[in-house]
Amino acid sequence: MRNPLADVPIPVLDDLIESDHLRSIVVGTVGTLGLLAVLGSSFPDSVAGDIAGIVFSTSTAASTARLAAPIVLAGLGGIFAEKSGVINIGLEGLLIISAFVSVYVASVVGIGNAILGVPAIWVGFLAGIVASTALAGVFGVVCIEFKADQIIAGLAVWLIALGLAPFMSTVFYGGVNTPNLGARVGWRYFAVMVVVATIVSWWALNRTAFGKHLRAAGENPRALDTVGVSVSRVRHTGVLLSGVLSGVGGSALALSIGQFVGSGETMVQGKGFIAIVAYLFGNYNPVGTLGAGILFAGLDATQIRLQQLGYAVPDTLVQTIPYVVVILVLALVGRTRLPAAAGDHYETEE
Amino acid sequence: MSRSDGGRLSTAVRRVLAPFVDRTVAERVLISVAAILLSVVVGFAIILVSGRVAECATAAWTMPVTGIGFCYDPIEVYVVLFNGALGYPLAVGDPGLVNPEWTPFNLSMGLTLSETTLLIFTGLSVAVAFRAGLFNIGTQGQLVVGGLATALTVLAAAPLLPAGPIAGVILIVAGTLAGAVGGGLWGALPGALKAYAGANVVITTIMLNFVAANVAYVLVLEVFRAEGSSVVATEYVPDHAQFVPWLFPGSSDFALLALAVGIGFILAFYYVVEHTAFGYDLRTGGVQAAAAEYAGVNAKATTVRAMTLSGAIGGVGGAVWVLMSEGRWVDSVPGLGFDGITVSILAGNSPLGVLPAAFLFGLLKGGALEIGFRTSVPTELVGVLRGLIILFVAMPEFFRMAGRYAGLGSRGPGGGNPTASGGSEGADGDGTDTAGTTTRGGESDA
Question: Which of A46, B24, B128, B160 has the fewest Cβ atoms surrounding its Cβ within 10 A?
Answer without folding.
Answer: B160
